[in-house]
Amino acid sequence: MGTLEYALLGLLKREKLTGYDLTKRFENNLVEFWHAKHSQIYPELKQLTEAGYVVYDIEISGNVLEKKVYSITPKGEEHFNNWIRQNTIELPSFKDEFKLKMFFSDLLTKEEQIGLVTNELNLHQKKLKHLKDNAKNYAEVPTYDKEALANYLVLQGGIKREEMYCSWLKEVLTIIDK
Q1: What is the pLDDT of residues 117-147, one digit of tens each?
Q2: Could you list the residue range(s) of the whole structural domain that residue 104 is in?
Q3: Number of domains in the chain
Q4: What's the rounded Cα separation, in Å, for the pair 117 and 43?
Q5: Type and span of the H or E element at 54
């Protein structure tokens, strides 16, 4: 198991969820900083269940549809709490396909380089707009709800990241165009 286990345990520490609900949390809430596919979540839930970190109850939805509703166990809470309280000891290395292309962009024409960077800038500007639109949900910094505050802080980090990336890409365009 890897870091995905802690994302799942954290979500289940907040509330009981089905596998479908967990997938939706990744698509809607965690998508800005963490990615997990449906095909990754279910095997991880199986491993967490086998390790004794989560359990599930079967609920009937409608006449015949059975669904598993997962919850964290005390052992899972202890495991999650140990992880969240540990300091990060090294920064992660990110795989960035665009930067790999930039590394080899000397093999492109100047026009192709400009097109590559312009396309990337457009993508990041679109993402920045999306994040700023999400930020409109917060009239002020949340102080009444710890979960809302945590979400707000991560959102602000995403906005700063995209603003910096857009600034860098504009600088790259200026340098290439000289």
Answers
A1: 999 999 999 999 999 998 998 888 988 788 8
A2: 97-177
A3: 2
A4: 38
A5: strand 54-61
